[in-house]
Amino acid sequence: MKEVNDLKKEFSVELLRDKCNESNSRIYGFILYTKGHPFVIKALKDPDFWNALDDISGPNWPIFSVKPNPQKETKLLRKPCAKMKDVVPVNGDYKKFLKFFGITDMDMLPCFMAFIWDDDGKLRTIACKIASKPETAVYDSLEEIVKIITKVEAKIPEEDKTTELLFQKVEKALKMRNFKYVILDAIQTIKDVKDFIGLFGF
Hints:
By secondary structure, this protein is an alpha+beta fold. About 45% of the residues lie in helices and about 15% in strands. The chain is globular. It starts with 12 loop residues before the first helix and ends with a helix.
């Protein structure tokens, strides 16, 4: 993996935006978590994990994540593409990115945040909860989200890949994905309640 030396200064939103602007398509991803999600951290440390996601997402749009390493430094990972490799060392911590994306409820984490800056420069986001454990479930949930975005991106005409239309399509697809899990969670809750009541012979 090749280091990008020009990002060894304090990583800022401006630098994040610069890196996003280098992508071929106007859709970006950021994996958000806290130190309370050890299985997510373990998954992010696995190079095979990143290589697999890279195969799925392709070269057109970037995925970022802040990851603490064993020396308690912070690294920002970007999936490999034609312009740069995947490990980008920076100084800072994940808390600034939680603030940047407006994460105030820790119950939202861990999550995958799809985002863009719209034509007026305003940040637009759509968050998708991901599994917090075990590592295989973390990967499976991220794989599902990345596949959805990649499928939508592939269907967009080349002339529209740098317009807001791409995000609008991705947002719609991810909202459908999120709604599916709301329904599945509700069904599981009903089942759990029925099982609990059954313990009393009702």
